[in-house]
Amino acid sequence: MSTPLLKIEGLRAAYGAIEALRGVDVEIHAGEIVTLIGANGAGKSTLLMSMCGKPKPTAGRILLDGQDITGLPTHRIMRMGVAQSPEGRRIFPRMTVLENLRMGAVVTDPAFFDEDLERAFAMFPRLKERQHQRGGTLSGGEQQMLAIARALMSRPRLLLLDEPSLGLAPIIVRQIFQVIREINASQGMTVFLVEQNAYHALKLAHRGYVLAGGRVQMSGSSADLLGNEEVRAAYLEGGH
């Protein structure tokens, strides 16, 4: 078995006296889409944020391609090939779409910018139409597209997506999940997807982890988790 692109070992993280992660273990191999599902407050977003340096883990290790990145500053982690589309989009609202995409590209060789911009516009034609519009004036779906495109402009080896479907209309969710599927298939992009919409996440991913109370309670292939009675009862609306 090859070295995992991402290996998380016994990770613990806290906000003051509240321990949000209580010894999490996750492995992701290059080319996989892996999803992390769980209820609100399970620690899903905390895990992604800890991987990016904040909050710093209190115990455990995060290995990227075998190299320990635990607690490194965020900018160094980004330069090593990790990009995040955070929960709540967090685009730069006063900047135009084009300026936001330029911000995503600051860690890469400028020679790639035009090529990567065309790829982003091909994935999300709406962004091309809106390229001179301020980010804050876009719809929620358009802002989510921009957040993902901005992350991809850094040419990451590992793309972290935190709740990309949150608050969006079903038709926009389907479009965004289709783009994730396509970049994985065509570019071999490795994706770690945190999602509350367990059904869509497991349909998209190759494998999944179930997080509850800051611990991994279950893991397996997406097909196995979709068919698991406990998962269906807890996260798939009673199995329907």
From TrEMBL:
- Superkingdom is Bacteria
Alphabetized InterPro entries for the sequence? AAA+_ATPase (IPR003593), ABC_branched_ATPase_LivF/BraG (IPR030660), ABC_transporter-like_ATP-bd (IPR003439), ABC_transporter-like_CS (IPR017871), BCAA_Transport_ATP-bd_LivF (IPR052156), P-loop_NTPase (IPR027417)
Q: Where is the ABC transporter domain?
A: 6-238
Pfam families assigned to the protein according to its UniProt record, in alphabetical order = ABC_tran
List, alphabetically, the PROSITE patterns matched: ABC_TRANSPORTER_1 (PS00211), ABC_TRANSPORTER_2 (PS50893)
What keywords appear on the UniProt entry?
Amino-acid transport, ATP-binding, Nucleotide-binding, Transport
In the record, biological process GO terms are: L-amino acid transport
Any one GO molecular-function label of the UniProt entry = branched-chain amino acid transmembrane transporter activity
Q: What's this protein's family per the entry?
A: Belongs to the ABC transporter superfamily.
**Name the UniProt record assigns to this protein:** ABC transporter ATP-binding protein
Q: Origin organism of this chain?
A: Zavarzinia compransoris
